[in-house]
Amino acid sequence: MTQSWSPTSWKSHPAAQQPTYPDSAELTQVLNQISVMPPLVTSWEIDHLHTGIAEAQRGEAWLLQGGDCAETFDQCQTEPIASKLKLLLQMSLAIVFGSRKRILRVGRMAGQYAKPRSSETETQNGVTLPCYRGDIVNRFEFTEEARRANPQLLLRGYERSALTLNFVRALSEGGFADLHYPENWNLLFVDEAKGEVAARYRSLVKSLADAIRFVETILREPTPELKRVDFFTSHEALHLDYETALTRPSIRGIGYYNLGTHMPWIGERTRSVNGAHVEYFRGIRNPVAVKIGPSMQIDELLELIQRLNPEDKPGRLTLIHRMGRNKVESALPAMIEAVQRANKTVLWVCDPMHGNTVSTTHGRKTRRFDDIVDELRLSFAIHRACGSMLGGAHLELTGENVTECVGGSRGLTESDLGVAYQTQLDPRLNFEQALEIAFEISSQLSAQRI
Ligand code: PEP
Ligand code: CO
């Protein structure tokens, strides 16, 4: 692929999953506004994550990526943002204990507003309207007005991404993220919870406090590195006009970056090798990820890797496999082996969520906790057996006490789902289920060290 690239060269490729705007002049006007607004992240931060992913590829770091299936404008509030950050900090603490590796924390946050859908339209009681495509495109409510793709929502999405990021940055830099005080990250219900997960977490925090006191006594000085954390953002870069408006040339003259997020990814539905998304992604300098499901063909995978990382740069490409518990054993090994044969550098990450979505008898979408854990365990084992390495997990989770996935230490059943089912799209792990997954990852990584 030697054709020249520009931030808009994707426009001559088929672009799947893009909304149709009734007023294209208004769209252009909004995009022009966004394209001169300040970027949300910097190229230096992006390069820093790039280096971290290269470390993870060498086995020195581990990627923890998580957040909502879709952020919503309504939930751009103090509590949901802070509790998601707390949860990711708690999880990374659990994982670092088992792995003894640096944890790269990447939120599905500050821009996860555009969603791919399996159908263009939705019909309710004989009325057919455009489908909901995420808050940055239209609204969930089932009315003609709400479902109209509205360019002003792109501005609202940009602004809410900035608000979210501002809060997350302040929390990760200041006293909040200080490892000396992990009690700051306690979620209300962790204090209340009598469950075994919470007890395990409390004992981990206690050993951590002891370890820090020990090190600081020996060094006779405090350790400033423990006072802040790195926290990165990611989202599915689905809406190409929006992503293009935030794609800017580096002031260092080293090419274009998507400055709307640190680590954009391509979803399973838009990863076509000749499609617009792959074309857009091939020219930006961010570390990028691609979701791959069981239908991915081997030659397609190799072509995709070639397009996205022709020079095989370390840190550039992450493959997020989301096979499903029942398909991971048959589909994944051949993909790993093909990448090894081609001698390509990738970071392998497991998304144990998206291949395990099922419908309950009441038509609610859910995921079984056991399927999620099984897919993770199987993925660790498959990588090990192939002489490869699982370098991260990609999870849909929330710090809220929701009931969307069934199972876990509290044994949530289908009949509990009605208690606090809040997602408009995919079911997320609640704080306790997510922490339990973190302990599972931790013990897998700990076993690998031995
Ligand atoms: C998602 O991450 O919410 C998603 C739609 O995933 P996938 O592209 O893997 O289906
Ligand atoms: Co999802």
Short description:
The chain is built from 13 helices and 14 strands. The chain is an alpha/beta fold and 450 residues long.
Distance between the termini: 44 Å
CATH topology: TIM Barrel
What class do helices, strands and sheet pairing give? alpha/beta
Assembly level: single chain
Major sheet details: 8 strands, parallel, barrel
What is the residue-mean pLDDT, rounded to a whole number?
94
Taking strands numbered 1, 2, ... along the chain, how are they ordered across the largest sheet?
1-2-5-8-9-10-11-14
What would you say this structure looks like, in words?
There is one protein chain. The model has no long low-confidence stretch (mean pLDDT 94). The strands form four sheets. Strands 1-2-5-8-9-10-11-14 form an eight-stranded parallel beta barrel, surrounded by four helices. The chain has a two-stranded antiparallel ribbon with strand order 3-4. It contains 13 helices and 14 strands. The protein is of the alpha/beta class and 450 residues long. Phosphoenolpyruvate binds next to loops.
